[in-house]
# Entry
Amino acid sequence: MRDCAFCRIVSGTLPSEKILETQNVLAFLDIAPVHYGHTLVIPKKHCENLLDLPDNLWGEMGQVCRKIARVLQKVLYARGFNVVMNNLSAAGQVVMHAHLHVIPRYTSDGLQFFPQESYHPGDMARVGQQLRQALS
Ligand code: AMP
Ligand code: ZN
# Structure
């Protein structure tokens, strides 16, 4: 897609620090890292988000993520890693070309991604029932 930054990275018209390339997937460094080594894993084909990503690409992206995670542990001494995917703008997706963030983590680095809350009494069962019903 012409106006998509990540398609331009795939085609080579926008520079990037590439880490790994497979038949259908590319991994490159995020330009604004949470920690050094923060990597983005994308399908070469333009897909907007998880919902329009074919299963084979999703699987190949997962394999690439595992390789990136291992190399972050080995080379940058990451003690853990987060794999994060923002889908649609309400969830913080800024670049509308599907991508997984692989973020190296360190003991006591102080990052907390999401604040959590508790259910009001009865709400957990109600929401569970609604979702099960829609899925059946
Ligand atoms: P998201 O909020 O999930 O859409 O994240 C998009 C990510 O892409 C952000 O973390 C940006 O820092 C990163 N990003 C945007 N443009 C580039 C680029 N040209 N090269 C590398 N990373 C980029
Ligand atoms: Zn694209």
In short: The beta strands are 18-21, 25-29, 39-43, 80-84, 100-105. Residues 1, 4, 6-7, 46, 97 surround zinc ion (ligand 2) (CB under 6 Å).
